[in-house]
Amino acid sequence: MTSTQADEFNPTVYLNGDWGPLSEARIPVLDRGFIFGDGIYEVVPLYAQAGGARLPFRLAQHLARLNRSLGKIRIENPFDDAGWRALIQRAIDANAGEGDAIVYIQVTRGVAKKRGHAFPAGIAPTVFVMQSPLVLPSDASRAQGAVAVTAEDKRWLHCDIKSTSLLGNVLMAQHAAEHDALETIQLRDGLLTEGSSSNVWIVAGGTLLGAPRGPRILEGIRYGLIEELAAEAGIAFEERDITEAELRAADEIMISSATKEVMPITTLDGKPVGSGRPGPVYAALYDAYQRAKAREFASQASRAG
Ligand code: PMP
Fold this sequence. Notes:
8 helices; binds 4'-deoxy-4'-aminopyridoxal-5'-phosphate; alpha+beta; 28% strand; six-stranded antiparallel sheet; 2 domains; D-amino Acid Aminotransferase, Chain A, domain 1; 15 strands; D-amino Acid Aminotransferase, Chain A, domain 2
């Protein structure tokens, strides 16, 4: 089975053991994901290769985070890594086509018999897997850099869990949209936390700074990757508190996520960031990111061969 027209979004999706078109996938209204946002998710980027195959990037790390998120909300992982890999491969195979993509995975606590906040006994998790197209930022938008705005981070203090309870993030993304910005950069108690759906990095005096891992941010799969890429490119890196003043005085600001890779922010709250152009640290990290992808895909190909 393949998805229909490229312009008609109706991929073949997995829901609780069945594969079928998205338009026919249904969950009961008492699913805890619907009623309470009681679930977690993952987004794994898939890159189109010459020859048509799509390969996941950093899948092992995404599956490890999925397992950690489930553990933190006490849902038993319904699959081991081999089981997840098989499901993801089937989603890829069932939706062949052109271009890059993502695989979205959602696991909720399952369907309760009645509404009640505490965990119901004896229910099985709901598992959903869907492939969607990924359009990476264009070369022109990278050359230009993106606009960001700031806002107070009003989310709960378990931002380390990749929870489907995303209301705080949704409101921040809407705030960006209403200000013609790509992202809202959040501050809590005068310190940088993260974007609505990205990690945020600044450059000060040639050093790359990232907000500390912990409950105030989601540790992106790109967090560890950016650390590795900085080391490879000979860029000093520090994981530490970043003040609002440091953010506003930064020579460079960039965001990272599965769908943006690493993307320069050249305007913050209407003012230019540094020179107002994407900076050298961004350029070095972006190049290193592309090399890391090429290396990983070459090693996947050699394992497959
Ligand atoms: N923080 C938040 C709140 C996010 O939603 C995301 C994107 N999933 C990230 C950070 C970046 O994570 P990753 O690098 O795994 O995409």
